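ok so I'm stuck.
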Amino acid sequence: MAEIQNNTETANRMQWWRDARLGMFVHWGCYSVLERGEQIMLRDLMPLAEYKKIADDFKPAADWADQIAEQAVRMKAGYVVLTTRHHDGYCLFDTKTDPWNAVNTGPGRDLIREYVEAIRKRGLKVGLYYSLVNWRWHAFWDPEHYADELPAMVEEVHQQVTELMSNYGKIDILWYDVAAVPGSSTPGAFGYQPHRLDMTSAEFYRSEELNRKVRELQPHILINNRSGVPEDFGTPEQHVTAEKDGRAWETCMTKNFPPNWACVNHSVADKSAGQILFYFMDAMRKGGNFLFNIGPDPKGYVTARDREDLDKLGRWLERNGKAVFGCGPDTINNGSNQGVCFQYGMFTVRGTTAYMTLFFYPKDYLIISKVGGGLKSARILVNGMPLKVEPLSNERYRISGLPAEQPDELATVLELEFEQPPYMLHYSDASWLDGKFSSAQ
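replied:
not stuck anymore, here's the structure
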């Protein structure tokens, strides 16, 4: 199964995902009631009986799913991934494996059914997040003394994933998380216990068997790499790092800098719309996808602060989508932070056209250096305003005529036309100091 990534069938299955570029991640569950993040059970060491009472106060609004779906549409996301069960084991769906779920507690209904219907109604792709870990099992924390629970723990995973793949129509993405083996040799880690089980995540959760079953039920599904086997795509978290060997990948990232995925009462370190765009375009120029997370309030509504920033991102994409959708990665800097004009912004490329998203807006001109391909023309993407292009020594170009005020509220994009697909020029000597560099040397 690990080799599935490299064949034509996989490429065809993944094409819609590669085209979408942007997804919306949603962490929401009974923990949202406390507005202190998604891991409050562990962080506060809450006894299970105390924690389970929270679900009785979990009362989502009737239109929560529609609100989530509309937000995804406005931010121009192509898919949404919602937590069906997080590490606390509370299921937002109707499961026969455990009565402690959304149907039998505060919500009184199947929230995953409401979610998939709302997402599909807007023409978006449906993603389901599922935590392989369930903190409520004693065996997860102490596999030595509760070894008799281990088979049931794994069987619960298989049964619940089968329910999700069988009862909700076509599912486009299965997004696993934390395939931690019970016990750990690292103090402070999930399940610290000196007598850790001596097996891999894939062995403990029988992940290859599980994923074969998933693909039988959902032949077109995409599966991430967090069940202990590589599957379809990698998932760098809170950083933008491309996978090796051209493998598909998707950065997932929180809106706040202290990484709480679910809602908190007040975050003083939220990313601004400009910062969100910066990380998003960093993923675009490196050839990945970007899964940006929000934590709705206890009713299931996107907070006003999140809504404002995500709407700004969506409006920017309406104006500048040509710099993202249908574009390939940066062939000029090759994803480096040290290459051509990085101090100005980031490149994406489509054929002989490069799009330069400016995160530093110059006063009236900028210099393009170390770029081959023959720059012919430049214009501001948002308004089509033509700019003057002048060749300089050392195979540089001066682009001038920029207005004093930035034309775009977030980041201005320049559309650059070349004679050939643009590429990086390399200096092999000191001739540039004398203004005599030539790539023909």
